[in-house]
Fold this sequence. Notes:
This protein is mainly alpha-helical. Helices cover 66% and strands 0% of the residues.
Amino acid sequence: MVKTCVSRVNPLNHLAHLFLAPASVPGRVGALLGDFARGIDTASLPLEVYQGLKHHRAVDAFTDRHPEVLACKPLFSAQRRRFAGVALDVLFDHYLLRHWSRFAADDSHHFIQEVYRDLELGACLMPDSMAHTTATMIRQDWFNAYRELDNVGHALDRISTRLRRPNQFAGVIEEIRSNDAELEARFLLFFHELQQQFDLP
Length: 201
């Protein structure tokens, strides 16, 4: 969703992209490919993978412009606001899990296991960097870990060490905790509109 200069070693809104993506192996691969597509000849991609990639980019563009997302950024302190988009990406996956039943009929645990299976099956469609990251994601069960806000904080602290520019991003979870109610409310408004716009069967 919101882009910045960061190595993709943690899932940044990956769960939300997969939630909204076509429920197929190539569609789900394409839904994550947006974070690994640099240097890829998109014209050579299988059609369903390319469509998933286009879906990913459309979701990102919608998110970047959405007023509820933009209104979340001033809630972060000046020294951390530059990377607020990173924090929101991870946090929004947590909120999606927290409020799963509002947006989906299926059980979230079942959905996550289905996604992991499809990503394993689709590894042959991925560039090497993506295949490595998704294998780690599955092995360490990143998505279920995001159910706990403490784990969101740990993930954001790890990301802070991989940002390409000097930063004071570590510890941002305390600002999230202080503004949790407003961030959560704005997420719910935003994600309802996002799902209406982009949810695919």
